[in-house]
User: Fold AroE from Mycobacterium marinum.
Amino acid sequence: DNTDIDGVAGALGQASGPAIVCGSGGTAPAAVVGLAELGVTEITIAARNADKAARLVDLGARLGVASRFCGLDEPELGERAASAAALVSTIPAEVASRYAAIFATVPVVLDAIYNPWPTPLAAAVAAARGRVISGLHMLLHQAFAQVE
Assistant:
């Protein structure tokens, strides 16, 4: 049983509309599944590696959620962020800091990073009055799932 999925879904609590998963590493598949379980309508995979992102796009599609890839440095990323209802960032804090201004307006952000805290991304979202969820909340919900 993958408790990462429980961690993402539990930490977010609810999500609807379009969402972004930033990153294509180990936590990203759980983010895709967790968002799909919560009922998002669309998932954009924002990542540097198009090949790794392709498997996440495929995963989203298999779960019945329209999914697409957007490179982290593509101009379209700003448009995706402007329409997103939620973002799950799985990338290192120093990398995410380069995109903090783009993602600052997303109303709900789960930053899987918990050290250092707050990350530049979390600080930017909080400054824009968004709801920021720390990776520690994700870990807490994973722990709950492990003892159920």
In short: Helices lie at 3-12, 28-38, 50-62, 76-83, 93-96, 100-103, 120-127, 135-147. The CA atoms of residues 20 and 87 lie 5 Å apart. The radius of gyration is 14 Å. The domain at 3-147 is CATH 3.40.50.720 (Rossmann fold).
